[in-house]
Design a protein that fits this description.
This protein has 245 residues and is an alpha/beta fold. It has a domain of 169 residues: 2-enoyl-CoA Hydratase, Chain A, domain 1 (Alpha-Beta Complex). The protein is 49% helix and 17% strand. The chain contains 9 helices and 10 strands. It has a 6-stranded mixed sheet with strand order 1-2-3-5-7-10, with helices on both faces. Strand 1 and strand 2 form a beta hairpin. Helix 1 packs parallel to helix 2, helix 2 runs antiparallel to helix 8 and helix 3 packs across helix 4. The longest helix has 34 residues.
Length: 245
């Protein structure tokens, strides 16, 4: 089988690349499983100081793979794994991010994007809600801005993503923006990084402990509903759903 996650290393920074361009890096059961395994390797490797999560192609992630979706428990596990990883995880985005891909972005400790990147919570347009990804998104993002984006599914740009709290920074050249970040991480003690990350993610993990079961159940219920079947069919057929007025 073709690997869905590319791996490279430079000066103690491991780069994991979502590499399923045929599906715009949609979160399939296979991709989620392979990414979880790669992250587990990174957690155990003492030579790795930090992890960069990036992508090939023009899309960081198009969200859940509607033909081969991961089980909600698997997606919860992946998001928690990123949050709990004892090393900083940095998202590097040079393309578009949709739906579940924003859950990955919000799980990362630092997120940088190119100025041309676009973002959208498109779940409402296919009859579901951004349930599971709320575990990482809601603790990070501005509630008033998020209400608009959750409820309308509108596309927004990198400047708005920074204002909302989904991104740390953006630039014409994302690698220029990340260079001082990676330099700082390489100069930091592994022990200090792990403990500092623990301080920063404590409230996010409280959200997992409190809400994961309920949001997983909500996701499963919505995805099995009649409106979701219509919404996903309409999406795959490239037409408006029946409720569009």
């Amino acid at each position: 089988m073709t690997a869905l996650i590319g791996r490279t290393r430079a000066r103690a920074v491991e780069t994991l690349s979502l590499d399923a361009t045929g599906t715009r890096n949609a979160l399939s059961a296979a991709l989620v499983g392979e990414l979880a395994a790669a992250l587990a390797d990174c957690a155990e490797d003492h030579e790795i100081r930090a992890v960069v999560l990036t992508h090939t192609g023009t899309t960081f992630s198009a969200g859940a793979d509607l033909r081969d979706p991961p089980h909600p428990d698997a997606l919860v596990g992946l998001l928690r794994q990123i949050v709990q990883l004892p090393k900083p995880v940095i998202a590097r985005v040079t393309g578009h991010v949709r739906a579940g891909g924003l859950g990955l972005l919000a799980a990362c400790d630092i997120a940088a994007a190119s100025a041309s990147a676009t973002f959208a919570f498109t779940e409402v347009r296919i009859g579901v809600a951004p349930a599971v990804i709320s575990l990482t998104v809601l603790p990070r993002a501005d509630p008033r801005a998020l209400a608009r984006h959750y409820l309308t599914g509108e596309r927004f740009d990198a400047a708005e993503a920074v204002r909302t709290g989904l991104l740390t920074t953006y630039a014409d050249d994302v690698d220029d923006a990340l260079a001082p970040v990676l330099d700082g991480l390489r100069r930091s003690s592994p022990q200090a990084l792990a403990e500092t990350k623990r301080l920063l993610t404590a409230r996010v993990l409280e959200t997992f402990d409190r809400d994961a079961a309920d949001l997983t159940a909500l996701s499963a219920r919505l995805f099995s509903s009649a409106q979701a079947r219509e919404g996903m069919t309409a999406f795959l057929e490239r037409r408006d759903a029946a409720w569009v007025v």
